[in-house]
């Protein structure tokens, strides 16, 4: 779940909504795995230059510290992730969001055949960036490939090139349909969300309708008046069953949100020139 | 799950069967909660006088050490438990099995209104036993009440008195139907399993058919020939869908197993004389 | 370590000072045990009515989340504790500070013979408070005894009665010199620190000199100008070797700090009338 | 600590000796860091083809499961390690011993400038072995370089080449004296221990005198009669202050032990031909 808007307490986002992210740990209706208990993480922008991270390997619903911290963190840009491991170790360094400088990154999905492709993908990471890789996941590696291709300067082409590279390496190893992803990334100001799968059948991803439109549709729902007109959510699963609230991000698309701006753009992997 | 029989590697019991206990962590079909990820524990008799325990709060399917240890523990009496907390803290000291001397104890269910009843129940524990209480669960307290009433000398009446006491204290506090339990306990030689609920609707509990009878019914199933005729299982959920393999322990009953012996007896809470 | 004063980032208090609390985990010069690696905890007043807690059983120097959170928590009343277990389990529910309503409590020391005294002490806790006990330490029990005797209304007599009770119970069990303690407690506005041992030889406890006096003594030390004149520290070990900065709290004393107020008072255990 | 000899309970090795490895966690007299609380691990040969591992990030002295398992593991080849991180994450995948097939490996020391050298070292690992790397330590990478150079066929030259490669890569990056190491490795039958530092000043490493000679020297020490004549220890710090019991492995040497055999050989890094 990613939230952008007026500063709000994290616990409003994690524990309050009808089908909050914490509830998703237990019963994920649209996710690929029924239970997401292999770790959680939150990232937000507060004091200091870089965003802060609170991540752990305990199931989210059990972590007392998560509840405590959620009641104390007030922020206008908030990322939260529940992990279901696709093979790599369950350890804090493999939990999302990942951070580099001012950027946060989280990913649902996998790189198929990662065991075979990993070495070639690792070698494609910029040598100056390589030492900053802390874990062993495909998700973090995708992040570092995107950074290698200039995520910090121009995110969408950077991610297109990263995915293009993975597909190219996979083709050379004979691994079909390697990329399954929904990704959210931010620099603290803007937020980008990607939905793409090499097979054309990506996992679910939704963005929220403008809050003022929704408040007009549902005047009885109080929280809509508290949220502020700039509030935007990007989620794997809808937070609340409210008609008109959630809009699917189409396959092979990227949504971009910044205060006052929101747009949907096509996403097409690019293969860098040989 | 409780196993009694010829020495066998724990990993055969935990990871091999069709619907093994480890799989039960994720998809418990008959349990009260869909996911049991609040801890696990195994207990077994090997070197030394007392049984050994390996318990932890990580979800069982994630614990690498559990897999490693399972491949090394060979034992003829084996207890395994997956926990779904009913309110008390998720910490190793609240994981089952609990141990006292040569005895192991595990419990599925709860004492309703435990928050209100706890002080009175704690005070009913033998003062000499009280210092050995390590955690804060209703399950461990039931164990210590049973020990107080002579579990080590005559298990069935001891548990009947323990349950009788809980029901009496609950009545005085106005808490209806306090006890929901399936319990397994052992001294390393014999194994007792109880199924009882104050409301008359207890959780599921099964014991296995004699292995030689089952091997005759299903000659094609190899593991039955490896298990040995003395093999007995007591489980919350059947380990394998095999017709004729599993028999329900009736409501308000206690099953007792010892090499060469197996019987079902009625279970009736006793209120100790005032 | 307890801090009261102008709001400050927790990381300034935990990680910056010369001999910060985090360093104390590794090399405690004045503490009873050389290494304090059995857990840590911080408590502070921020959003909401009750103070927030962040506690864990990893050694403080290893906990990445502690570093992250410290950089985000800005508060005017801050408690931090490093634990060295005196026997009870290492688990989050046994880490300090403990909380009840708006009150925080932390304790260095032990109740000797706790194994023998525990039952009687538990029974002396107000039955309405008893259900809130989450762990199994002597420290938390002392807190609940103080609450039983009215900590929230009048702290010093309440703690005097709690200690008096422990000494009385110990005498009846033949346990000499039961209480070894330095305690810090707060309601978010005022801060009380106690130094007492039944044997007359309590662990170390210091309070800081008024910052304006100290800045006059040491004009070259920059942080003193940033701290603000109301800043007060109460610590087990001095945070910084600076002459004139630290004053010993005498044996059998209680220090009290509130904005604009600071005093030292005698502390004498009281035995409640039979 | 490495033990080779007659099968023995792990708890005899970990918890019994005067200055056991568990005590070393707290007060390491000869180690580079005073406290080794960043994880522990044991490896041993029992059931099955491959050795078993029990590793964790809790300080060794706190891990209840370690105590329990130690009382149940009986083995003739036993490795135990206490970790003090030199920078990489504290997580189970970074704890020693590391395993590959039948081989175990543990390392005290570091590769200086690892952050700079890591990418080149990673690329030098055999592509077929690379996917098996689970963590991010220099220690594990040294192991995989040794495997790349044929550890499983001829250990000493393989380690010489691995170290040679590291020194060569370090020279090209301008990092002086890169390798600081004591290493123990085994295939379950033989045990090799290496002591080497690029600077010529390696950490401590000792091997034990033949037990029968020692029993003659110290007839009053009972455990010597229980140990069996084939017992051999290789340790970072002496387990027991007993004159004549411990012999320093010289700088730039490798000790090799197999039932009936023990020898000291020189160790010289080899640079593979260009």
UniProtKB/TrEMBL annotation, chains A, B, C, D:
It comes from the Bacteria. Pfam families: GATase_4. One of its GO terms (molecular function) is transferase activity. Residues 1-238 form the Glutamine amidotransferase type-2 domain. Signal peptide: none annotated. Keywords: Glutamine amidotransferase, Transferase. This is Class II glutamine amidotransferase. It comes from Georgenia ruanii. The lineage of its organism: Bacteria, Bacillati, Actinomycetota, Actinomycetes, Micrococcales.
């Amino acid at each position: 779940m990613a939230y952008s808007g007026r500063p709000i307490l994290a616990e409003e986002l994690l524990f309050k909504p009808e089908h909050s992210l914490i509830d998703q740990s237990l019963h994920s209706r649209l996710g690929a795995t029924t239970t997401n208990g292999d770790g959680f993480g939150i990232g937000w922008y507060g004091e200091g230059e870089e965003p802060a991270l609170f991540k752990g390997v305990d199931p989210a619903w059990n972590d007392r510290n998560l509840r405590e911290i959620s009641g104390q963190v007030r922020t206008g840009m908030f990322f939260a992730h529940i992990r279901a491991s696709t093979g790599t170790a369950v350890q804090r360094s493999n939990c999302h969001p990942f951070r580099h400088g001012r950027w946060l990154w989280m990913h649902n999905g996998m790189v198929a055949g990662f065991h075979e492709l990993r070495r070639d993908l690792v070698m494609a990471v910029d040598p100056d960036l390589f030492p900053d890789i802390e874990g062993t996941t495909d998700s973090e590696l995708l992040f570092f490939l995107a950074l290698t291709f200039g995520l910090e300067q121009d995110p969408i082409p950077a991610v297109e090139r990263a995915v293009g590279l993975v597909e190219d390496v996979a083709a050379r190893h004979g691994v079909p349909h390697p990329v399954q992803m929904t990704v959210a990334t931010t620099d603290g100001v803007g937020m980008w969300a990607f939905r793409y799968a090499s097979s054309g059948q990506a996992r679910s991803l939704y963005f929220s309708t403008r809050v003022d439109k929704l408040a007009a549709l549902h005047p009885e729902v109080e929280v809509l008046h508290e949220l502020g007109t700039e509030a935007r959510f990007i989620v794997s699963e809808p937070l609340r069953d409210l008609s008109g609230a959630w809009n699917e991000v189409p396959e092979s698309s990227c949504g971009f949100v910044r205060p006052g701006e929101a747009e949907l753009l096509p996403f097409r992997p690019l293969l860098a020139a040989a």
